[in-house]
Amino acid sequence: MSDLQERADDPSDDNDERLIELLDRYVDTLHDANDASRSELLSHHAELADFLGCLDALDSLAISQKPGFSKKPDFSNDVPLPELPLSQQPTLIEPSGRPPPTGDGTPHAVLPGGGVVQEFGKYRLEAEIGRGGMGVVYRARQTDLDRVVAVKMILSSRLASRDEVQRFYAEAKAAAAVKHPNIVGIHEVGQVHGQHYFAMDYVAGQSLAQLLRGGPMASDKAAECVVLVARAVHFLHEHNIVHRDLKPSNILIDEDGIPYVTDFGLAKVFSGDSAHTQTGTIVGTPSYMSPEQAAGRSADISPQSDVYSLGAILYELLCGRPPFRERTPLDTLVQVLEGEPTIITRVNPLVPRELELICLRCLEKDPRNRYASAAELADDLERHLRREPIQAQPPGVFHAVRRWVRREPALVSRLAGLGVAAVIVQAAYLYSRALNDVGYHLQIMSILGAWAVASFLFQRLLHREPWADTARFAWAAADAALLTLLLSTTCRHAPQGPVPYAPLGPLLIGYPLLVAASGMFFRVRLVWFMTAACLLSYAVLLIFHPEQREPPHYPIIFCAVLGVLGVIVAYQVYRVRVLSRYFDRQQLP
Fold first, then answer.
1. Which of 15, 470, 485, 549 has the greatest number of CB atoms lying within 10 Å of its CB?
2. Under DSSP, is residue 105 helix (H, G, I), strand (E, B) or coil?
């Protein structure tokens, strides 16, 4: 790699940038095990030949993304490997991506989709059926008992860290500790030539996530599904296990439509050693994790955390999407912590009000306001299915207002700002002649009213995905324009006298407030846009009201402060976005 580094660092080489781009493309073909693209790239760019030795060595360490085995380097980690007879050692994929021949020289059978039938101890792996952040699952035939099972392995194979191995075995231990008709059972756990695995029941069918690709479920069918899952989850809780990663992809649906809970990779035994997850560590899938999980408060995770996840699953069954799903995991976490889901009947008007109340009770921010157990949730769903009165009740006025505030933070902040502006205007002119000017007050109230109506309209557009981004920028421009119109109207009614009266002193705070509020959307470009709109609007105000330029250094100081504020807010949002991109690249543990 020293040769490569010297070439990349040599400022005299005009082709460095192009060479690095070609190397990046070549590495991508290695990661994708795309032999055809790699050969074509080499045939057109002979200069890559100097680096093939180094890159092919790196290729031997890469993990294949194709169906079948991961590529395995010829070295072991610090996990002790047992000595196994040759018949139980796994068949490996060669660096070329092609399976080696069998003992008699015949190749292994190729599976549909490019997989390869492989012997793995006493299991014959037939096809990859699932892949997650830590493991890969194969449909396999157990040769000694001649039965079909599912075999899960650590995705990183023998490169797995000790923590990954411990977590893998913790999943197997948690799943093996319970026996329930709606929980996937574990048969055995072990390792073959350093490849850790466990075998479990094979559920012929599809996951709930795959089933949801066809759209929302019928209300009663969704309730029936969650009842069975909730009963299984309550069984886990009775054995002091919190699943912590309940989501549609971890619920398997067999050919008869019966759900099965699986994937205990994040399960926590809450009556024993709870130090498995440190405080501050976020575990789970953002769209389905509870607020206490999203905040990293591991000590607060309890059975009510799984109740929240069950509510998120029910929400998706009814609406076709989870309660919170933003563009990035970090944005989703923020919504889980601070937002409120869209009212179900707005998304799907066919959902009964009672089922909506049950779902929203599960999704309460405070665990104490949720169902006390998964069994209580199942009982309430069964009452609904029998058309009996349910336990969940509509929220009170205070609770409903609080939900609305969390559901529409941008709108609430605008309305609050308008209220403050109205108070400032009244206070500024409390003892002035303008107090008796009915026309002036009608103008002020008309502007504030138009601003409020515009805010409601823009908030509605935010809920329409194709218009969301455009609505944010249009809303920012409208805020700056309406504030400038308000200030201009105030200037026109300033009292005259030997000492000019400048009523804009307290009201100019509106521009910095708009810049700061734009950061709530976590968009760097939006912050810059709002800062520019406020500076431009203030400049227009000074042009039409030259009396506001005195003394001349005041406008300069104000513009400088406004620009600095925009830079600070934009930089803070940029730092959040960088963290968000990190979450995009790294799956949550």
1. 485
2. coil
Q: What is the pLDDT of residue 274?
A: 43
Q: b/e per residue, 153-191, with b = 16+ CB within 10 A?
A: bbbbbbbbeeebbebbbbbbebbbebebebbbebeebeb
Distance CA 44, CA 445 (A): 70
Report the alpha-carbon distance of residue 4 to residue 2 in Å, rounded: 5
Residue 337 · residue 347 · CB < 8 Å = no
- The distance of Cα 167 from the centroid of its chain, to the nearest Å, equals 22
Rounded to an integer, what distance in angstroms lies between the CA atom of residue 302 and that of residue 153? 28
Whether residue 275 contacts residue 177, with contact meaning beta carbons closer than 8 Å, is answered with no
Number of residues in the chain = 589
Distance between CA atoms of 356 and 339, rounded to whole angstroms? 17
Give the rounded distance of the alpha carbon of 236 from its chain centre.
26
Closest to 553 (Cα-Cα) out of 545, 561, 543, 563 = 561
Tell me the whole-structure pTM to 2 decimals.
0.68
| CA 15 to each of CA 9, 11, 40: distance values in angstroms, whole numbers, following the listed order | 11, 10, 20
Q: Which residues of the chain have pLDDT under 70?
A: 1-18, 20-21, 24, 26-38, 48-117, 132-134, 155-161, 265-284, 424-426, 428-438, 493-505, 579-589
The count of other CB atoms within 10 Å of the CB of residue 270 is 17
Which residues make Cβ contacts (< 8 Å) with residue 546, sequence separation at least 6? none
